[in-house]
User: What shape does this take?
Amino acid sequence: MPSSRFSGLYLSGRALAVILVVVGVSGAMAFYRTRSSPAMAFQGAATSNQGPIPASQVAALTGLDKEQELLAQYVAPAVVTVTVTAHATSSDEGMPGDNSGDQGGGQGGGGGQGAFPPDNPLSQFFGQFGQMPRRPEYEQGLGSGIIISPDGFIVTNNHVVDGATSITVGLYDKRTFYDAKVVGTDPLTDLAVIKINASGLPNLPWGDSKAIKQGDNVFAFGNPFQFEFTMTRGIVSGKGRLAGDRTDLRAPGDYIQTDAAINPGNSGGPLVNTRGEVIGVNAFIYTSTGSFNGEAFAIPSEIAKPITATLIAKGKVVRGFLGITIVSLTPDMAHFFNLPATATGALVSQVSPGEAGAKGGLQHGDLITSFNGQPVADPTGLQLATGAVAPGTTVKLGIMRDGKPMTLSVTLGLAPQDQTQTASRSHANAPGAGVRLGLDADDLTPTTRRQFQIPDNIQGALIRTVTPGGPAYNATLQPGMVITEVNRVPVPSAEALTTELQKLPPNQDVLLRVVTGGGAGGAVYMVVHPAASSSNSQ
Assistant: This one.
């Protein structure tokens, strides 16, 4: 992913070149010091007078070693390297000094001239005055993949094979297939299936990502930095994580977070449980450096398995579309909707006019609890159920509206392939504000509507500033968001917002409906826990 914080794990050839250059310089320096330091001179043999720890005292650790060795022997042969050749683009991340935005003349374009300072040791590797070589017409990158059947079907990430002109697959047994074909891709979930002409291949079964628990041991396999068939160990750090850079609100969330070391080149590799079952497909890392910082994320098998099956059968995923925005219902929200704290489902926070949900009678504030008679536990469950049904199909939705059960018949529409909702998914659980909550709000004006790209049909109070340390600040509210309801009462202006908040005791929880992303991102419900003091703004 082209982000400084959320990075895809696809390793480009140019990125690797810089890494190897830096390592080469460091290695040369270390070698020089070793040869020149008197302290390192040979002084004769040294022999320890200590024996090893008795095997009986570390039997558990030895047993763990043997079990992990067994796991590696089982999993690694079903992991592949995926080397992709693709057209170079000006949006690709270059090596230091590469101005990828410049358009050079001639075939291949690019031609960025980033110069290194004369005293920079990297300048010797990139020509006189640090001038970068011209951008090639084609580039190569490396990812990973998982063999899921003996006849050569392989799962990887869409961002690994996207735009590929050729795909080469390398097996654990050193065989290489230069003519891998793309069977199908699904950009929404970042999954792809490729195929090689082979039989009798080792392969891995899918596991149940819903069964894993925080703290469970997991193992990541892949090809980080071209170190092929690498295995790392960690735990399930969290479940149900929303990707900060995956901004299409139709995209399923529920990513598995792990501290197993995952780096560029790991994209598409398996995250397995202790039985060698694939419970996730490695997808991206949370980083400020471009390398592993302790937070990695995998697409859960709950999502990957059915999407993969559809890609193999049909070559693409055509999803039914409700035209709604949904969020999780938290216990502290429930009473605002006359629901018990134990209620589960997908809470509708916005209904797009003219889409299937609106035509079927859905309203914001409805809690969808079942889909064609099957329980809906959370937003991901509804997304998966909807995505598995063809457009034009009429489905039965069980809902709770103000605590009362209802059933609606809704005919699914076709998801607009060229429409991307751009709100950050991480805002869905962020509490919101009021005059007692540490923020300042203004009326919407023509100027602020243009500034924040807020459509005329949205009425509410625009958040302008957030007080550091206050409830709104702690809840990650941001300027530019628009508060449209307080405790389900519309607030079309800053004055109306103030009036509704002043009716409430200082410490009472408040349910807000907030529009994010300038309106394009949709609306979300948020519960705010006000501070006891009255020292907030306004």
User: Anything to note?
Assistant: The mean pLDDT is 75.
